[in-house]
Specification:
Layout: E1 3-14, E2 22-33, E3 37-42, H1 48-52, E4 63-68, E5 71-72, H2 80-86, E6 87-90, H3 103-113, H4 118-131, H5 136-139, H6 148-160, E7 166-170, H7 178-195, E8 198-202, H8 206-212, E9 215-220, E10 223-229, H9 230-234, H10 237-242, H11 249-259, H12 271-291
Parallel strand pairs: 3-8, 3-9, 6-7, 7-8
Antiparallel strand pairs: 1-2, 1-4, 4-5, 9-10
Helix pairs in contact: 3-4, 3-6, 4-6
The chain binds adenosine-5'-triphosphate (ATP).
Residues 14-15, 22, 24, 42, 44-50 line the site of adenosine-5'-triphosphate.
Function: ATP-binding (A) component of a common energy-coupling factor (ECF) ABC-transporter complex.
Subunit structure: Forms a stable energy-coupling factor (ECF) transporter complex composed of 2 membrane-embedded substrate-binding proteins (S component), 2 ATP-binding proteins (A component) and 2 transmembrane proteins (T component).
EC number: 7.-.-.-
Length: 292
């Protein structure tokens, strides 16, 4: 795997020099490997949205630098437009950015802007619509006629249609009911698996992160508190709780049992690992039974 994002000593101050100056990022450094699915979590105001807004140049570092595919976004002569095609950013509530007459035209907006020929634009619209489960009938409707979840999917498809190498999503499931959340997040996971694209997903839900991401970046007061695999981060469940983050119930149960002195390996702290561990134990029991 090769590195796709490098963040070096990144700091960002809103309203610098003013009485209300806020340091939203404080000397943040990390790298992302191409093909990773990184979940970004942290309490309100910890700097998550500010961080991701640096990946396609929406914000300029106060100090430090951000490299995408080895190139510094802000170095002399860098073409910011090219970074916007390389990194697709889906903001919170992107449905407010839909403005075309039909969903198909909205999804086509990005690829058309890239100067692609019309046949390729149409191919990409169909491909992206299929990824997020939008029917031909819906494509011909006005975005304003759709439900909240459908509008969100149109907005995500519009970014996918640009074929970015990195897809960054800020709370893509915010405000949706549980079914809508699962639909959107599963579609993003399937897209990640089929295309190998790098995904950075900001979420308030540890459950979602445990389910979909393979790495987790935990933000706390403008700094990185943890950055590791899902298993290793969940193995530090007690610290997550101390950072004010709610961890999945299964994690809390295992943590309690461990604190009560039971010998529970830390990697059963997430549901997939708990299931694997139970399956292993059952298999061992059945094997043992056959031998008895
Ligand atoms: N446009 C802005 N002007 C001034 N301060 C801002 C601005 N946007 C964010 N901040 C401040 O910067 C800090 C980090 O905010 P940011 O939105 O990046 O956090 P977050 O982790 O994404 O929060 P949330 O989970 O609530 O979305 C907060 O203290 C916030 O109040």
């Amino acid at each position: 795997m090769s590195e796709i994002i490098r963040v070096e000593n990144l700091s960002y101050i809103y309203n610098q020099g003013m009485p209300d100056a806020t340091k939203a990022l404080d000397d943040v450094s990390f790298t992302v490997e191409e093909g990773d699915f990184v979940g970004i979590i942290g309490s309100t105001g910890s700097g998550k949205s500010t961080l991701i807004s640096h990946f396609n140049g929406l914000n300029r570092p106060t100090s430090g630098r951000v490299l995408v595919d080895g190139r510094d976004l802000w170095e002399q002569g860098a073409d910011l437009r090219s970074f916007r095609f390389l990194v697709g950013l889906v903001m919170q509530y992107p449905e407010y950015q839909l403005f075309e007459e039909t969903c198909a035209r909205d999804i086509a907006y990005g690829p058309r802007n890239m100067g692609l020929d019309e046949a390729e634009v149409q191919r990409r619209v169909r491909e992206a619509a299929a990824f997020v489960g939008l029917s031909d009938e819906l494509l011909e409707k006005s975005p304003f006629e759709l439900s909240g979840g459908q509008k969100r999917r149109v907005a995500i498809a519009g970014v996918m249609a640009m074929h970015p190498r990195v897809l960054v999503l800020d709370e893509p499931a915010a405000g949706l009911d549980p079914e809508g959340r699962d639909t959107i997040l599963s579609q993003i996971r399937d897209y990640h698996e089929k295309t190998g694209i790098t995904v950075l997903l900001v979420s308030h839900s540890m459950e979602d992160i445990a389910k979909y991401a393979n790495r987790v970046l935990v933000m706390h007061h403008a700094k990185i508190a943890m950055y590791d695999t899902v298993e290793n981060v969940f193995a530090r469940a007690q610290e997550l709780l101390e950072l004010g983050l709610s961890v999945p119930q299964v994690t809390q149960i295992f943590l309690k049992l461990r604190q009560m002195g039971l010998d529970i390996p830390a990697d059963v702290y997430t549901i997939p690992y708990a299931v694997k561990t139970i399956q292993k134990a059952l298999a061992a029991k059945q094997g043992g039974g056959a031998n008895a």
